[in-house]
Protein: asparagine synthase (glutamine-hydrolyzing)
Amino acid sequence: MCGIAGLVLKGRSVQADSLQPMIERLAHRGPDGHGVFTEGGFGLAHTRLAIIDISGGRQPILADEDRLAVVANGEIYNYVELREALEREGRHFVTHSDCETILHAYALDPEGFAGRLNGMFAFALHDGVRRRLVLGRDRLGIKPLFYAVLPDRLVFASELKAILPLLPNAPAIDAGAFSQFLHTHCSTGEETLFAGIRRLGPGEILEVDAELNLRKRRYWTPLDVTTRSLDFAEAEAEFEGLFEQVMKEHVRSDVPYGLFLSGGNDSAILLAMLSRLQTQPVRTYSIGYVDATMKDELGEAERIAQVFGSRHTSIRLRREDLFRRIPHTVWAADDLMRDYASFPTSALSEAAAKELKVVFTGEGGDEAFGGYRRYRQPRLVWLAKRLLAPGTGGFRTRSEWWRKRSQRLFGPALAAERKNFRAPYLKAWSEAPAAWSQLQHCQYTDLVTDLPDSLLVKVDRMMMGFGLEGRVPFLDHRVVEFGLGLPDALKTDGKQPKIFLRRWAERYVPKDHLYTRKRGFTVPVREWLGGELLDRLEGKLSGNAAVREWFDTRHFPALFQAQREKGNASREIFCLMQFAIWHRLFIEQPGLKPSPDEDPLDWIS
Structure:
């Protein structure tokens, strides 16, 4: 793990000290040191979290008499096998870092090198011979990478906050991306909340020459997956060897690792696998809530931890603990993203980071193997939704601000964008092959929208906010290809989810755990958003200049009263609060960093 950043200047040389503000903004991603490389108009910066080759893996890493240089964030899990292959092809290594394989693979094949890398990564590679910068991102978008192109420069970084200091002017808010956040809980696709700052997409390479000419290409896509006619026995035999190899690669580390353990199947399967791969008890962490009527998963997590004898820690959040994390999670997330699970992930990360640098999590199992309830709706429901909102087969059709009461809150710019909020889902659905099933269309749509731009934002940013690396084996591209290509009958029968994965896991995990009804990772925000906090919040938001610019605050009294009486306006109110805090941290006073324990109202101007 780490943070990367850099700059390409047209017609001017990059000075090393100009990269210092970027390094400072990424220090949380790499508390173990930093490095800089400059050559002419190209500059690379790196902040390091030392996981592999602790003593010798400092970056930038150079090769070919310094004509090649790379900075990378993440892990190349197959670096052992890849290094052996590259050495047989004549390459000579100077470190034991997994990231050095990127340089040598590129040197041998500048076009196809990324296809040899198995892992989660974002990298920036300087090619001094061809005078170009090569940016790349892993296949599923586990690691982030942003960039901005101006007439005289290209700026890139692992996080938006590191790009801002190198822009001549503060960028405007992109109304379309802001609207997407409100309607679908995140902005997804190339555009970010900052006009002109873009995401490099999952599985993409971007080449930039000294004149700022750009060439973008995609080296991997789930669209290449074909459906296979397998029965359970055939799939089981194949997956056993595949997942064993994936896990052996994922546990490669020169530092200890742990696991975030929910009450669900995916993290329980990981605990079973990790317990087989090490002799010491696995370090596990789970979270629950104090004084909430909503049932959490802590009991199930503690039971499965006992089954495998893990060294377990249970954390219990109070109402105050959760809300005082809001400013830090907004700062850590960078782009606006409303996922309440960010708060328990933040608390777990803070606890784990006190003794570990690497933690496994179970994200991706639902996308790969068809686990979500939204994938299993009655046929008549699908048909009705298709009629009301064509274009996505009845999937992802409704705004999260669907009530008329909520829509009255939009100012002119947001009202004008409302009709466009489904565009990313329409695009994804139309891309999927016509021969694919409804379920595969749903899986693909999630894989290229909500997964990289919401779920993985939570995993990467909340953990890296405390210098912690998250590893997600279910999102190894080989596992995703396997799961997406399974016949529907091995994913769901319309009632039960993830049929194949649960049957396969019966040999490792107790059956009574595997077949417990899935509840999802819920957080009692709706229940807890009330009382004096809600009263104070109404006053702060109603008077906030940024909120008043984008929303019609005349309708706030009805919104807040609905929350007091029915508790059904928490989503809208929470989005408004996030935006006000985000605006303070990224527009009004960029560079501020809240602690994980702050009164959220103090961060609303």
About this structure: The longest strand covers residues 68-76. The CA atoms of residues 366 and 409 lie 34 Å apart. The radius of gyration is 24 Å.
